[in-house]
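Homework help board

Subject: predicted structure for assignment chain

Our instructor gave us this sequence and asked us to write out the predicted structure in token form, then describe one feature. I got the tokens but I'm not sure how to describe them. Can anyone check?
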Amino acid sequence: MASEYEGESDSYSADVFFVVGIVKIGLACFGVIANLIAIAVLIDRSMRSSTSAILISLAVYDSVFLLASAGVVLGPSDAIWLMLTVIYPIRYIAQMGSVYSTVIVTIERFIVVAYPMKARIICTLSNSRILMVVVFIFCVGFNIPRCLLFLMIPEVNSTANASIPFDSDYMNFHNNIYERYLTTIFYFLIPYNFIVLLNIRLLMTLRKSKKRTIKLSRHHHDRKASSAINNPADKEDSLTTIVVGITGCFFVCCFIPMVYNLIVLCEPTLRNDKSTFYLLPVGDTMLCINSATDFIFYCLLGRRFRSLFRKKFCRWRHHRRDTMTSQNTGTL
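My token output:
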């Protein structure tokens, strides 16, 4: 009876991981294409700003993360060397880069909204590029232990039919300190709490700013709607709204992975528990959703982004609209 139950459990686990793998591949296909489109729009001259530079970096990290996640699913099961030396380190570097790009863009938006005068000096395009380089170096440096992990895997000596000794102290450091404590702290706890606190303050500041804007707008009822689209303040508000949406998605999607890491951190023996075991693939899928859905927030919350997107990728609609307008003008 027990063996029959275990067989059913293993079959169920295989089905779950198969479905999760299909979902990850679908998210990777959609997310990479969507992120490439987002980059094509964000590099436009009219969108050029420090925030756009960070969002481009975020889209690149998300695309690499999605490709690496799909590589884990599609990679051959016997290619353990390829997984440990290439795919897993790149995946974690991209994940960390995405996390801290989200943190930086949240800080940048908070400075712009809360301290607009200081933002002209701090939030510049050159400073954003420097920060992105620093983030990349930090992410690569933090994940060097993962790149070296394959050196510590015991190899089999075919002639002596025995395992070659490996550094057990390093493996103990990697499994107990690096994976449990450092990864949980730097991947989840620090950025998660930072983003939550900054978003609360950002929303409070936006609310106060909106009230001031409403009071001032009462004296300018004759202002044309067309001029509002080209107003720099409107551009900043649009970018801020996009960032709030992206960070909100980050908050939701990273919750399950953070819970899993905290459970393993507090009680490592629960890693193999059935209820905890399924949190890992679900959490990985949520991370893929987070990396694949930024484009949706750009389209839903960014009026300027939507306008440029239609201009770049829906030119036939613009041409048809212009033709109909000219015909109507000629008729009138």
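Reply (TA_rk): Your tokens look well-formed. For the description, you could write something like this. The two ends are 84 Å apart (CA to CA). That's the kind of observation they're looking for.
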